Amino acid sequence: MINTDELRQRLEQLVDPTLKMNLKDSQAIKHIGYDENKDLVTLIIAIGKLGGDEEYALRREIAKVVKLDCNHKGLRLQLEESKIFSSIVKKNVTFIGVISGKGGVGKSSIAANLAYALKRNNQKVGIIDADIYGSSIPTILNLEHQKPVYNDNKKIIPPMIDNIQVISTELFTDPGQPVLWRGSLLNSMLNHFFYDVAWDDDTDFIIIDYPPGTGDIALDIKAIVPQTKMILVTTPHPSASHVAVKAGTAAKSLGHQILGVIENMSYYVNPNTNEHEFIFGNGGGREIAEELDTELLGKLEISNPKHSLNIYESDEKNGKIFDEIASILISIHNM
Q1: Cα 167 vs. chain centroid, distance in angstroms?
Q2: Claim: this prediction has a pTM higher than 0.85
Q3: Alpha-carbon distance 102 to 233, whole Å?
Q4: Cα pseudo-dihedral 322, 102, 177, 218, rounded to 10
């Protein structure tokens, strides 16, 4: 039988060369498991940085402790970067991705309204503006431009507006300046959003505003938070719904659950006749939901919010729809 205390004590004396600290001081040992039948030790250990000769040297030292010093036959070792263990991805957070097949369907506005609806229902919410090239969340939320501020642990403190945490590329560029980044820079920025932001520990939801269509960013986010659940935004127009199916199919192929479809700009209520006028067509959202085997979560009318420029409140028809969707998301979070 394994002596867990002895094994832990021996491992804690090892030094993580990337942090220049022993594994005890860095609180690196996250899990010790043991299969008695196979005499197999399972370890999950957090280190400062993966890759290179330093990781290889530490792996050898750990194997020596387990197999030579403690006389166990097998070792299953999982090393992860310590910033990941302390990040939002390891907390009890529900990640909701808001996706679309094309731009111009109101995806970012819906992401912002979902965040507000969740907040109205006493949830702690953050928004990641992952639409790198077309970031608009700070503008939609009327969030003043501000440069990043860091805490004592060198993590970014996300700006707050109405008690909603926000992170966006707009915080890292001058106002009005385009983002001219390619693959590795995009991946690095997304890593910062998830791993290097000091999100509140009691955060319930992170809403991720994806770029329209499919591409590298969707793949990068999948690698970081594969558990993200998706809401697909479309308009009823045939061209938008056709492309939306592709986006939904791509998300499903990556293993994401599609929670449902929101049909934006569904109709306009003529103030003279009080009749619904289907300016952009009719039925596209339901067709998409049926094709993707999911739900039509709501049909939003074309209207201006009463109380602010972009956010609907509970006393408005669209606001009530967002509240209903928020209730569904909360029930999923509490499962």
Answers
A1: 11
A2: no
A3: 9
A4: 80
Nearest in space to 296 (alpha carbons), one of 266, 316, 274, 255: 266
pLDDT of residue 184: 52
List 232's β-bridge partners, or say none: 99, 261
Radius of gyration of the chain measured on its C-alpha atoms: 24
Own/partner pairs, 8-16, CB within 8 angstroms, 24+ separation: 8/32, 10/65, 10/69, 10/70, 11/43, 11/45, 11/62, 11/65, 14/58, 14/61, 14/62, 14/65, 16/47, 16/48, 16/58
Coil vs helix vs strand at 260: strand
pLDDT at 181: 52
How many angstroms separate the CA atoms of 275 and 268, rounded? 8
Neighbours of 171 (CB within 10 A): 19
Q: Give me the pLDDT at residue 228, please.
A: 95
Place of tokens 């979070």: 333
Q: In this structure, what token pair is assigned to residue 311? A: 């956010």
CB contact at 8 A, 121 and 330? yes
Where would I find the H helices in the chain? 4-12, 52-63, 82-85, 107-120, 137-140, 183-195, 216-224, 238-253, 284-291, 317-333
Residues in the chain where the model's pLDDT stays below 70 = 1-2, 174-187
Alpha carbon dihedral 81, 79, 183, 249, in 10-degree steps, equals -110
204 vs 98: CA distance, rounded Å? 16
Distance CA 201, CA 199 (A): 6
Q: Pairing state of beta strands 15-16 and 21-22?
A: antiparallel
Run of H or E including 299: strand 296-301
| Residue of 274, 279, 277 whose CA lies nearest to 236 | 279
Mapping DSSP to helix (H, G, I), strand (E, B) and coil, where does residue 1 land?
Answer: coil
Cα–Cα distances in angstroms (integers) from residue 174 to residues 141, 145, 146, 171, 286, in the given order: 18, 9, 9, 8, 41
- Tokens 């993707």 map to which residue? 292
